[in-house]
């Protein structure tokens, strides 16, 4: 990427961040959404991990494939649509969970942790092409998981609650 493009992107990110955080008015009260049964944080984290791993698995060609989900030609639309449906379904589930009275920072951390860990595991499985790549990404994943666990402890408890 040329230097001017990189500088332009960074400037745009900074400007849009300032506009979003300082210029735009704060949103009013959150409208009430239909509440659903809130899963335990560990269950929410696993569901987030499955959704993230499935999303990436449907879109990213791996294991020698040249197209998503080992499809060819016009059929590549099907895994793309399935990935979109999975993303929308997971997004709606999280959106509804956040409306529940018992939604906590531990739930939020579990959902984010599940997606981050699944993304890293998928990277190890599908996107490493050499031993140093595999070892490096595995170390990053292990350190990230340990740090997320420490953050969960600091938030006040295990994700299994």
State the total count of DSSP E strands.
0
- Structural class computed from helices and strand pairing: mainly alpha
Q: How would you sum up the global shape?
A: globular
Strand content: under 5%
Structure, described:
It contains five helices and no strands. The protein is mostly helical. The radius of gyration is 19 Å and the shape is globular. The N and C termini lie far apart (46 Å). The mean pLDDT is 86.
Brief digest:
The chain contains five helices and no strands. It has helices at about 5-25, 40-60, 75-95, 105-125, 130-155. The longest helix is centred in the C-terminal third of the chain and has 25 residues, at about 130-155.
Question: Which keywords apply here?
Answer:
single chain; 161 residues; mainly alpha; 5 helices; 67% helix; globular
Write the layout of secondary structure elements.
Elements: H1 3-23, H2 41-59, H3 77-97, H4 105-126, H5 131-155
